[in-house]
Amino acid sequence: MAGTAVVVGAGVGGLATAIGLRGAGWRVSVLERRAEPERYGTAFGIHPTAQAALDRLGVGEAFRRRAVPYRSARIRTPRGKVLASLPLERIERRAGRPELLISRPHLLDALLARLAALGGEVTVRAGVEAHDVPALVAEHDLVVGADGIGSAVRTALLGGRSGPRRIGTVAWIGIADFESGIHGETWGRGRFFGMTPVEPGRTNWYATVPEATTAEELRDRFAGWHEPIPRILAETDPATWIRYEMRHLFPALRSFVHGGKVALVGDAAHAMTPNLGQGACTAILDAEALTRAVARHGRATLPEALRAYDTERRRAAQRVAFGSRTLHRFMSTDHTRLRNAAISALRVG
């Protein structure tokens, strides 16, 4: 017999979890503190393993209709010299399908459409804060914290030992209304700039610097770098840029589950720097693994299901988070030797 579940957070991980639980016959409520989902146009890179998880959740077809393949990308110097290739071709050879990129709004739309298609006993309540987490635990068979790096569920039940930690770097992201013609990342001293496809006629871009508080400061930091970096920063409206201080969850959690009734997924469990582009992937993999374990074990043995989820996902996700943080150190360093070591690890062919 299925039970009742509340998912706190309506981002990628939360919606994917709600889909999996509803597909297993559970009655599901989703609580989202924002009045509307965040719909800024960041491009998510979805690895073939996460694509397979979306297929198992019934979202794969809708996802692929709006996604674009990411098959070729290079690491360059600020003058434009190619240093290495990102391992996209190797990924495609091994998996039999390419990495795919999709904008955040399109992925959320695909997830919401699948959730609506499942019908039945599922509700999504926007503008609702999870103020009383113990009450949610008392009222439901399962509580899922999918509420991001500042997770109220994690803090209420696990305390503040692990929490958001700044890493001293500012990130900027945006969308240019033209195709860049080249993709990949350019690494300089203490800063880097990336460009990926996102949809026809547009380019997703991102930049990190030790600090930059205005658009003009950001443009100054990349003045003289190879084209189209200056053009992207000159021709995109700063009002559409998003600036945030990069953070990660530290120290790593000892468990993604608590008390036989609570599980954490996505950034609530293992928020990471964006350097490996795996944040959305790990959230999807968490959600699918959790709901698969719950479906297999059922309500009667839910604690066993949560232990199985923790065993499958915690170390794997934390390895990705550690790798992303390590790559950030290499990419952002002023030391040429360390940057070269990271480039050598990525070089293919």
Provide structural commentary.
42% of the residues lie in helices and 25% in strands. It has a 7-stranded mixed sheet with strand order 6-5-11-12-13-10-14, with helices on both faces. A 6-stranded mixed sheet has the order 8-2-1-9-16-15, sandwiched between helices. It has a domain of 219 residues: 3-Layer(bba) Sandwich (FAD/NAD(P)-binding domain), CATH 3.50.50. The mean pLDDT is 92. It is globular, with a radius of gyration of 20 Å. A hairpin with a 4-residue loop joins β11 and β12. α1 runs parallel beside α11, α11 runs antiparallel to α12 and α12 packs across α13. It has 349 residues and is α/β, with parallel strands linked by helices.
How would you summarize this macromolecular structure in one to three sentences?
The chain is of the alpha/beta class.
CATH architecture of the domain at 4-72 and 99-165 and 248-330: 3-Layer(bba) Sandwich
Q: What does the main sheet amount to?
A: 7 strands, mixed
Beta-strand percentage? 15-25%
- CATH topology value of the domain at 4-72 and 99-165 and 248-330: FAD/NAD(P)-binding domain
N-to-C span = 53 Å
How many strands in all?
16
Tell the overall outline.
globular
CATH superfamily of the domain at 4-72 and 99-165 and 248-330: FAD/NAD(P)-binding domain
CATH first level of the domain at 4-72 and 99-165 and 248-330 = Alpha Beta
Specify the number of helices.
Answer: 13
Taken in chain order, the helices and strands follow as EHEEHHEEEHEHEHEHEEEEHHEEEHHHH
Please tell me the overall pLDDT. 92
Oligomer: single chain
Please give the order of strands in the largest beta sheet. 6-5-11-12-13-10-14
Helix content: 40-55%
Report the radius of gyration as a whole number of Å.
Answer: 20 Å
Structural class: alpha/beta
Provide the low-confidence segments as ranges. Answer: none
